[in-house]
Write a structure and sequence with these properties.
The protein is α/β, with parallel strands linked by helices and 247 residues long. The protein folds into two domains: 195 residues, 2-enoyl-CoA Hydratase, Chain A, domain 1 (Alpha-Beta Complex); 47 residues. The protein is 47% helix and 17% strand. The protein contains nine helices and ten strands. The chain has a seven-stranded mixed beta sheet with strand order 1-2-3-4-5-7-10, with helices on both faces. Strands 6-8-9 form a three-stranded mixed beta sheet. The two termini are 37 Å apart.
């Protein structure tokens, strides 16, 4: 069922899956309005929704973001909008799955890489063009070293080097590349189906633990693991007891 969207973004609710399709011409540059709508959707999803399937109309996935601000205040507002969407991809209420069938550049790489799962066509290219304009992509550098080694983060952003889907998967920038371009849609659908076969609550706990433990020290991670394992076990036991009572 179509549920509209904003200019350049089509949202379709298909049962527990929300399909978000970027469609803004040859470059698929995301607008600030698209970023805001996606962030709001992730933090306040439709009832029953579990997965956000992020994709794009051909020929590319997304070659970055639209730049409209002409002064410092506007530039800061745009940067904060980008960071807000990054945060929503990490912390929002939907499991996020990216289907990268075409090239991704700049902020477009982040849209794919920050999803919980991201799958690319082997021919898709990934790169950060900001250095060509003399800019250090600090919004990118805020998350990139957590996915790839520091030296790879430096190399990709400092040289503007382009890599294909297979190399992006090898570096950890995306989850995996399809064997062939035409196999990408089936791969994405099979991965979404695998997610939907298991309880949403468990996946939410997995996402939360990965997020909360990412920057913690070893002792804190160990305590967090014990506390949450006990809490989840009690929750499941109470649920099983309630079912017995109802029977």
């Amino acid at each position: 069922m179509g549920s509209g969207g904003v200019e350049g973004l089509q949202l379709d609710v298909e049962g527990p899956v929300v399909v978000a399709t970027i469609d803004r011409g040859e470059e698929n540059l995301v607008s600030m309005e698209i970023c805001t709508v996606l962030a709001d959707l992730l933090f306040d999803p439709p009832p029953g929704a579990r997965v956000l399937h992020l994709r794009a109309a051909p020929p590319v996935f997304c070659l970055g973001r639209e730049r409209g601000a002409g002064d410092e205040v506007g530039m800061k507002e745009e940067a904060e909008t980008l960071v807000a969407l990054n945060r929503a991809l990490r912390e929002g209420g939907l499991v996020t799955v990216a289907e990268v069938a075409g090239d991704a550049a700049g902020y477009g790489v982040g849209l794919a890489a920050l999803c919980d799962l991201s799958f690319a066509a082997p021919s898709a290219r990934f790169w950060f063009p900001e250095v060509e304009a003399g800019l250090a992509p600090t919004v990118v550098l805020a998350w990139l070293p957590s996915l790839v080694q520091r030296s790879h983060a430096f190399r990709l952003t400092a040289s503007g080097r382009r890599i294909d889907g297979r190399e992006a998967a090898g570096l950890g920038l995306v989850t995996a590349a399809a064997a062939h371009d035409d196999e990408l849609p089936a791969l994405v659908q099979s991965e979404i189906a695998a997610l939907l076969r298991h309880p949403a609550r468990a996946q939410s706990e997995i996402r939360a633990f990965l997020r909360d433990s990412a920057s913690a020290d070893a002792d804190t991670v160990d305590r967090l693991a014990v506390d949450r394992l006990v809490a989840n076990s009690i929750f499941l036991r109470q649920g099983a007891s309630a079912e017995l009572v109802e029977q």
